[in-house]
Amino acid sequence: MLRVDGDLVVKRVQRLPGSKLRVTSANEAYEPFEVDLNNVPGDFAVIGRVVWYGRQI
């Protein structure tokens, strides 16, 4: 889970060479973007990890 511009969003994050993060969405309507960890935007933070647990009731 990420905070981007005051919004909480669930995205996939991949660490890239050169201290960058590639942020992608499961929804193809949203374009991927990169975050430079050497110059992090003011309102960007990794809040936590989303874990899904499914079972049959």
Strand content range: 35-45%
Q: Count of DSSP helices?
A: 0
> How can the largest sheet be summarized?
3 strands, antiparallel
Low-confidence stretches: none
Q: What proportion of the residues is helical, as a percent range?
A: under 10%
Number of strands: 6
Strand order of the largest sheet: 2-1-6
Radius of gyration: 13 Å
Structural class: mainly beta
Description:
- It is a single chain.
- By secondary structure, the protein is mostly beta strands.
- The protein contains no helices and 6 strands.
- The protein has strands spanning 2-4, 7-9, 12-16, 20-24, 33-36, 44-46.
- The strands form 2 sheets. It has a 3-stranded antiparallel beta sheet with strand order 2-1-6, with no helix packed on it. It has a 3-stranded antiparallel beta sheet with strand order 3-4-5, with no helix packed on it.
- The mean pLDDT is 93.
Put the structure in a nutshell.
With 57 residues, the chain is mostly beta strands.
Give a topology summary.
Layout: E1 2-4, E2 7-9, E3 12-16, E4 20-24, E5 33-36, E6 44-46
Antiparallel strand pairs: 1-2, 1-6, 3-4, 4-5
Relevant terms:
3-stranded antiparallel β-sheet, mainly beta, 57 residues, single chain, globular
